[in-house]
Write a sequence for this structure.
């Protein structure tokens, strides 16, 4: 099914922000980090999870679809690129369209910024900086087979529902084996492995916790 | 500069790689490694210099990116055996200190503390220092001048610190900041096994069936170790975490025992009580390889779970559960860190854990054993070669006549002139207060932040007639000195460090030091020359020191003789003891059951629990405990200057349970018998209601160590950082975080200035903040 991609396993994340620092060091957007850490259960648990661009496949990158300037390129290998600086008009349509809350606008430069899967590295066969350094393997880069060889029995999901819309992504999330259900309702918080089962609460909300939720 | 990394060269064996690791665990992150052709280097004309992180005891391998002009400008993950490309945020940002604008580049001097520093020539600084040493020693005797080293120094330099004190200064007063780190574990290991190091390599964690982590916030303090932990979990190992706080790792544990700070040995005695009661001991092992088991068995009989549960404030069932899980597993391991070591009963706490491992036969086997997780990069190596007040090189005792004779022969000095043992770091401060020590040289340490009971420390240092400090940034302690010598950062010199596994690794030089900056080795040798001991300090570089260190350690337990720079470059690390250049090193100890005591046995020690030194009262009902946060390192002299890390965690906070009625961000005054300070509250259920926590990386007025007690463990002399009595009350406003001191004419990092005045707690370090859901 999936090729070489990022797998996110929030159950392992220790919130160290090595990924955030590493992202800042990557040559493709040196000096700026494109990763945010979210704390889905703040004050009650130390759970954290990293947000990188999910590189939506179907429908093809909502961010790119709504871009009036056609600035967001999707490459043949499924990588949704950062907005082309010669085209981006900083209108923030992509920010509103993204169901995962990924793109940001650099207000001074009036330009969009987002994770482009370290294209300067992945194009040369290297792993993205964040997944390379992540001390726990909460961010893993490789194929599903490689992931499962390391972590026997691990289950992943790459479809997420937001209300009536289902989004299939190039990046996959590790989900608890007993909670595998495609598509995963409501976006990311459902995969909180060690906390309470929030899948029901999330699907009841319908609109998805992500957009109006944690940030 | 070679960019070849033998560790990633295909076909080259990695000696410490776990050949016994189960399938799947060996190739954890090889995918995505730097290809042999190094496109990166080729493309940009840059060089990748293989080296290691300068910070914690994991000692992750990394490449420093060096540009065409020979300047370090970045970092690249390295597929070293220890970390397999992974790095924590400290490691990723470490390179930024190499060319940081706060670097000291000329010696600073002043005659009195109320004067401004002025930049002076090296000659002037060295001559003045030597004149002051001569004056003080002439008036008050040799022992009136002390030396305090550091465990972030390369082993070569720590060797020189010990030799400099005894041979050039001829003073018994030398100690080092590793005293604040893991000396309790060292003392316990020495008592039980006759050797001071972890018993197993990290890779053994991958093979264990049950992993017990005591007093260690692995996720924040040793983040890269979590790969081993999760690797074990992937194989189905159970995880037990003993910690008053629900840390990121505790959150995922099978059992998290949130015990009251300062009760560890009561807990482990009770666990052993249950192990005995349920017949889970390994009697054959105990009979063949140990002494003292009968006494230990008798003692733990007095610790039934009901009693310890009350002392520790945990459910009785948890004690039984931990006992069954640990002793019932095929192979079990215990790893511990400062949480059990920073106590007035630190050695006893460690011994109680060792007793559990030994009684269950979990020792000296792949996947079974014990380890201590060193805090500082060279916390392990830093004390092995004579920097500690009671040790000579090779871990020899300074009071043992035979050991003294051996070292005097190597050093070419008269045995009668070799001083006897001195006192520990905290005791030296008390001696400064009493004017028994009147002059001091500090080498890369920052006691103004790192020692407990700040008021005492400040008083001690202020009483000094002369104080010189080596550092590359103006630390809070250096800002108190009369002379500051600007020295190299780790990437500007080569040398070895021993990580938490006792694996010796080599750091390489990536950049020439800035003009005006010298190596610690050079400065010590120049001072020695001026003190008339030049012939004993003829060391042009680290390599020449290492050659003497090898010889000085030969034949001891800490045998480095077989380790050479060339071998280290080839192998990616060798664990001592390594007696000959053909010897592969000793990653795992006691494989044949024999320890390093003369009788080859493990000497089990009786442990009785006693309460912490600072008694609780109506006025001070809570436990204050301290620790680290992932973005900062020790006293923060380095990390509080790196923009990304400051942004990640700009200031300290006090972690309190919601039951105290505070809201997130409220100013909370924490009061102990030593003083009071105001921190923003981080309200969270991840801490015991009777405990509060403050990270300790900041100076006054936001210093946890202004509040902690300077009570010491009687054997290891480690301070009791992890527990003191406290109370909390509402305050008006939080104390402002001070900027790190900078030398005249230097500018501070703009990014660090921005966040420093932020009155709020950090944006959820490890998600602990905001008790109200947004
Ligand atoms: S580096 Fe890994 S463990 Fe650390 S915050 Fe990022 S995803 Fe989590
Ligand atoms: S996650 Fe957001 S930014 Fe990434 S491709 Fe999908 S819509 Fe675009
Ligand atoms: S885990 Fe320790 S050695 Fe590794 S990068 Fe972090 S601070 Fe450096």
């Amino acid at each position: 099914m999936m090729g070489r991609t990022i797998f996110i396993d929030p159950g392992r994340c220790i919130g160290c922000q090595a990924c955030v620092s590493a992202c800042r060091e990557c040559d493709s957007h040196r000096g700026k980090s494109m990763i945010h850490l979210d704390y889905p259960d703040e004050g009650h648990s130390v759970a954290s999870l990293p947000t990188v661009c999910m590189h939506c496949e179907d429908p093809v990158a909502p961010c790119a679809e709504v871009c009036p300037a056609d600035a967001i390129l999707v490459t043949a290998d499924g990588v949704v690129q950062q907005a082309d600086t010669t085209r981006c008009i900083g209108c923030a349509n992509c920010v509103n369209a993204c169901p995962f809350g990924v793109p940001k606008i650099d207000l001074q430069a009036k330009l969009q910024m987002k994770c482009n899967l370290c294209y300067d590295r992945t194009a040369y066969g290297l792993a993205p900086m964040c997944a390379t350094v992540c001390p726990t393997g909460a961010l893993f880069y490789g194929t599903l087979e490689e992931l499962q060889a390391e972590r026997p029995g691990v289950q992943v999901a790459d479809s997420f529902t937001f209300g009536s819309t289902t989004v299939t992504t190039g990046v996959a999330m590790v989900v608890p084996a007993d909670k595998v259900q495609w598509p995963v309702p409501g976006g990311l918080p459902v995969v909180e492995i060690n906390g309470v089962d929030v899948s029901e609460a999330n699907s009841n909300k319908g609109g998805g916790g992500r957009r109006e939720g944690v940030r | 500069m070679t960019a070849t990394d033998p560790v990633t060269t295909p076909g080259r064996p990695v000696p410490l790689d776990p050949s016994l690791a189960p399938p799947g665990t060996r190739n954890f992150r090889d995918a995505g490694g730097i290809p042999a052709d190094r496109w990166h280097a080729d493309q940009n004309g840059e060089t990748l210099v293989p080296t290691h992180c300068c910070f914690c005891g994991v000692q992750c391998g990394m490449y420093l990116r060096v540009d065409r002009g020979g300047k370090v400008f970045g970092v690249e993950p390295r597929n070293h055996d220890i970390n397999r490309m992974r790095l924590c945020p400290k490691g990723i940002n470490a390179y930024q200190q190499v060319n940081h604008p706060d670097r000291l580049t000329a010696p600073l001097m002043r005659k009195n503390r109320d004067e401004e520093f002025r930049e002076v020539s090296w000659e002037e600084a060295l001559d003045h220092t030597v004149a002051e040493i001569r004056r003080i020693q002439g008036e008050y005797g040799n022992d009136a001048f002390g030396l305090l080293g550091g465990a972030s120094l390369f082993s070569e330099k720590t060797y020189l610190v010990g030799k400099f004190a005894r041979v050039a200064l001829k003073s018994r007063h030398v100690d080092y900041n590793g005293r604040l780190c893991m000396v309790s574990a060292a003392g316990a290991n020495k008592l039980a096994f006759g050797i001071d190091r972890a018993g197993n390599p990290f890779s053994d964690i991958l093979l264990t069936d049950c992993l017990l982590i005591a007093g260690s916030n692995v996720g924040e303090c040793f983040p890269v170790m979590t790969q081993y932990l999760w690797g074990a979990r992937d194989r189905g190992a159970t995880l037990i975490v003993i910690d008053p706080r629900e840390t990121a790792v505790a959150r995922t544990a099978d059992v998290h025992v949130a015990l009251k700070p300062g009760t560890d040995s009561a807990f482990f005695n009770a666990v052993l009580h249950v192990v005995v009661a349920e017949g889970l001991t390994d009697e054959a092992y105990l009979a063949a390889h140990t002494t003292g088991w009968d006494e230990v068995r008798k003692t733990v009989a007095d610790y039934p779970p009901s009693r310890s549960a009350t002392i520790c404030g945990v459910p009785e069932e948890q004690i039984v559960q931990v006992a069954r899980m640990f002793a019932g597993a095929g192979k079990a391991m215990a790893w511990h860190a400062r949480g059990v070591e920073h106590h007035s009963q630190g050695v006893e706490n460690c011994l109680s854990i060792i007793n559990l491992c030994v009684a269950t036969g979990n020792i000296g086997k792949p996947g079974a054993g014990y380890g201590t997780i060193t805090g500082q990069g060279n916390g392990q190596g830093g004390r092995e070669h004579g920097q500690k007040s009671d040790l000579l090189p090779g871990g020899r005792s300074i009071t043992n006549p035979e050991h003294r004779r051996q070292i005097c022969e190597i050093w070419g000095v008269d045995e009668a002139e070799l001083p006897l043992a001195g006192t520990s770091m905290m005791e030296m401060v008390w001696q400064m207060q009493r004017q028994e020590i009147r002059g001091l040289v500090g080498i890369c340490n920052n006691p103004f932040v790192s020692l407990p009971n700040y008021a005492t420390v400040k008083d001690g240092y202020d009483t000094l007639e002369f104080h010189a400090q080596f550092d590359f940034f103006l630390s809070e302690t250096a800002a108190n000195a009369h002379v500051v010598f600007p020295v190299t950062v780790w990437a500007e010199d080569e040398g070895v460090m021993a990580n938490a596994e006792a694996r010796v690794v080599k750091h390489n030089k990536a950049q020439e030091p800035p003009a005006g900056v010298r190596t610690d080795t050079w400065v010590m040798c120049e001072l020695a020359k001026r003190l008339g001991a030049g012939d004993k300090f003829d060391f042009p570089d680290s390599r020449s020191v290492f050659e003497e260190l090898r010889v000085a350690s030969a034949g001891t337990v800490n045998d480095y003789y077989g380790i050479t720079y060339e071998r280290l470059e080839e192998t990616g690390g060798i664990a001592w003891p390594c007696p000959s250049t053909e010897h592969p090193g000793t990653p795992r100890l006691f494989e044949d059951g024999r320890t390093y005591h003369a009788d080859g046995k493990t000497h089990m020690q009786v442990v009785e629990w006693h309460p912490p030194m600072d008694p609780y009262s109506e006025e001070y009902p809570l436990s204050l405990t301290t620790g680290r946060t992932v973005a900062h390192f020790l006293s923060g002299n380095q990390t509080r200057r790196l923009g990304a890390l400051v942004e990640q965690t700009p200031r300290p906070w006090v972690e309190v349970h919601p039951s105290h009625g505070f809201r997130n961000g409220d100013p909370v005054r924490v009061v102990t018998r030593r003083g009071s300070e105001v921190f923003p509250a981080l309200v969270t259920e991840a801490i015991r209601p009777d405990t509060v926590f403050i990270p300790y990386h900041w100076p006054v007025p936001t210093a946890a160590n202004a509040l902690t007690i300077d009570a010491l463990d009687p054997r290891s002399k480690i301070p009791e950082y992890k527990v003191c009595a406290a109370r909390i009350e509402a305050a008006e406003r939080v104390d402002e975080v001070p900027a790190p001191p900078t030398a005249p004419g230097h500018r501070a990092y703009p990014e660090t200035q921005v966040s420093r005045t932020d009155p709020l707690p950090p944006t959820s370090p490890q998600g602990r903040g905001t008790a109200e859901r947004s």
Observations:
- The longest strand of chain B covers residues 675-683.
- Residues 73 and 533 of chain B are 39 Å apart (CA to CA).
